[in-house]
Design a protein that fits this description.
The structure is a single chain. This protein has helices spanning 15-28, 31-39, 43-50, 60-74, 79-104, 108-113, 115-122, 152-165; strands at residues 12-14, 57-59, 127-132, 138-143, 169-177, 186-193. The chain is an alpha+beta fold. It has one domain: H-NOX domain. The strands form two sheets. A four-stranded antiparallel beta sheet has the order 3-4-6-5, covered by helices on one side. A two-stranded antiparallel ribbon has the order 1-2. Helix 4 (60-74) crosses helix 5 (79-104). The longest helix has 26 residues, at 79-104. The N and C termini lie far apart (37 Å). Mean pLDDT is 90; it is low at 1-8.
Length: 194
């Protein structure tokens, strides 16, 4: 994880993200095991998770605590896969219940132009830019958002979930740059069958 510097803003996420991970855990664990897992979280995160307010802002560190708990419980051999699975679950739930109606009426180019606006509803910082690709796809680039390396599969899962929800055929998302590999930005390339 990149260290916070005086130039790096503190990162915040909406409670809906924490709530999604909690719902994922509820769907996979019996109550006693879920309680034990939550009890092992750091004090502040544990208290927030017990009383999440969907549209409040919380430090991204709490989201990281939830992702790390998911990795420890479900797939410590492949942390990115564990986070991707949990994030895809949350994406399907949230997109199907909230964004599907909005997305279903908009043409693809308009949805792509709205990615920055959607980002700002869920994250307090970060600069998101979309770049058209020559083959008709689009790249999403994220800067000024130095999250931990397990955050990247969350974005990948949400992008794929959104693409599938709006009916894009053979949707693919591939991470091609990452700040955790020394790049200056994180970049995902989105492709689908026209």
């Amino acid at each position: 994880m990149s260290k916070q510097t005086s130039k790096t803003p503190e990162l915040f996420v909406r409670g809906v993200s924490l709530m999604g991970f909690y719902e994922y855990l509820q769907s996979r664990l019996q109550e006693p095991e879920l309680k034990r897992l939550i009890d092992q979280l750091p004090d502040k995160t544990r208290e927030v998770v017990r009383h999440i307010k969907k549209w409040e802002w919380y430090p991204l560190e709490m989201d990281r605590h939830m992702r790390e708990a998911i990795v420890r419980r479900f797939n410590s051999q492949n942390p990115r896969a564990a986070v991707f699975e949990a994030s895809y679950f949350t994406a399907e739930h949230d997109i199907n219940s909230f964004l599907r109606g909005i997305f279903s009426f908009l043409p693809i180019p308009m949805i792509i132009r709205q990615i920055k606006t959607v980002w700002s509803k869920f994250y307090k910082s970060g600069n998101v830019v979309t770049v058209p690709l020559q083959d008709g796809g689009v790249a999403l680039e994220l800067t000024e958002f130095e999250a931990d390396y397990l955050f990247c599969p969350t974005i990948e899962a949400w992008l794929l979930g959104a693409m599938r929800t709006i009916g894009l055929k053979e949707a693919e998302v591939k991470e091609t740059r990452c700040i955790h590999n020394g790049d200056d930005r994180c970049r995902w390339e989105l492709r689908w069958k026209q």
